[in-house]
Design a protein that fits this description.
Elements lengths: L9 H12 L3 H14 L4 E7 L5 E6 L6 H6 L27 H7 L2 E7 L6 E7 L2 E8 L4 E7 L6 H4 L5 H18 L4 E6 L2 E6 L4 H9 L7 E7 L3 E8 L11 E5 L2 E3 L2 H10 L12 E7 L4 E2 L10 E2 L2 H18 L12 H7 L29 H22 L16 E3 L5 E5 L2 E5 L1 H12 L10 E11 L2 H10 L9 E6 L2 E8 L4 H14 L5 H16 L9 H13 L13 E5 H5 L3
Amino acid sequence: MSDIIQLLPDHVANQIAAGEVVQRPASIVKELLENAIDADASKIELIVRDAGKNLIQVVDDGKGMSETDARMSFERHATSKIRGTDDIFKIVTKGFRGEALASIAAVSQVELRTKQKNAAVGTNIYIEGGVFQFQDPVQTADGSNFLVKNLFYNVPARRKFLKNNNVEFRHVIDEFQRVALAHENLEFSLFHDDEPVFRLRKGSQMQRIVDIFGRKLQPQLIPIKEDIIWCKLHGFVAKPEGAKKTRGEQFLFVNGRFFKSPYFNKAVQEAFEGLLLPGYVPTFFLFLELDPEKIDVNIHPQKTEVKFEDEHLIFALIRSTIKRSLGIYNVAPSLDFEKDPQLDQIMHAPSPSKGNSVSIKMPEIVVDRDYNPFLQEKEVKQAEIQNLAEMYHQNIAAEPSKINLFEDEDFDEDLMRLPNGYWLFNKGDMTLMLDLGRMHRLVVSENAKPSKQGTISSHSLLFSLEYHMNEVEKNKYRSIKKYLPELGFDMKIAHENVLRIDAVPEGLKETQVMKFLEDLFEILEYKTEEEFLQYYQTQWNKMQSKSRFDFIYKKDAEQLIKDFTALGFPEFLPNGKRCFYEIPFNDFKNKF
């Protein structure tokens, strides 16, 4: 029997290894940006085309590489960062395993131009599909210039699994932001299809956050700082009004490295306990600094997970530091802010052992002596029904409201509102109990659909509104702007990141516009263009819909019922929930 086990060729092994390191264009962006930082660059420029599918270029002014190092850098497991296993547990650089460049070159066409600062000339290397093509001397600027072209050109099965450009570029922005946030002392630029997206200057952490996420976030940021012997914690959290329903602006860093940790996210969430609405997550930018030997970053191919030696202590540190800062900035009450006067008297009273006593008023207990726990459920229901009937007849006698709901039938219906927000009206031998909130939701949904001409009517604003976008929102706006005219919006970028709104759809109040746009940009996270209209409709319905408790005037209820009748008086919403119930008169009679 012949032998069947053999060694894989290097280029095939590299393609397989690339599956762990290179998942999408953003993976390459992360590796190349981190390499530039490790090269002591002070200025880094990222250029992408087609969301990185056709070109990812990173230009830095770092140390550059010699001719030999440039060639060796594309070999698997060739690294300048570690020499033995002990070095893995005291990593201070971004990269260290020597896998990234070999993996990138295996699934793309890579060109590198690099030059050391003291060298007369640099070197130019070209590798295609993991196969070395040539290396020549070249005149080039100090530092390194990596060009990665045609990602997965030789692995078409993997290329077809890439998402559309909007989704892939959103991931590129994510990686760019993570690196730029951790290094506010460096200059970063990002260009997409020759359009500038970010130009980040050197500055403070606050400046870097504002430059990335927009100036509207600045007033919401609360500084976080704690310095103990074994760990430093600093950064910012946003006030509760800066919380969002979708995760996105939650950043954790350790020793300048971004990492993900649901456990530490929970610590932040607990610090905001009682301050956030259900389903909302706080915005935060937290930076940890501790001994590299206390962490292990070598547990994930993308190095986005970190193992901590004292994670329980760090959890407590994060939670307590944020709670204290929230108290200092009057976002949450601190223990010393308000004291009960009686408690203060007890705390400062002389010791009882010395014969002194403090007069303490005991709390009074109020008991409802008329409460009967043995009242039968049937008696309770009968009492409720009798009260309902009395209120109904009193309402009819006091304020009759005659409306003809069905023009082809000769009816007069009586309409009344119940204390629980539902409405009753008679039709023939039936009483209908209406949920006006659900009825309104259906009317709004139908009215928001485009007309036969394919557009929704709009109204011009007397004074234009201005919405200040951050770069992420600006990118989202560009991806959806072709839909906006048919949805009733007239808006455009006036200057820099300012969106000027001149007209909005009928039914959208001026006071709702800013919140509507903010929510719209938020829910577009990682969504494709094709999904936009569906999410837009959902957000529009939420903005326009009212609950049944919002209808307290008969004239509003009457108009809604007329609008609902024009739809055919449907009994159910598309999700299957009822808009009304029918109650035969005989059911009332049988209750007495």
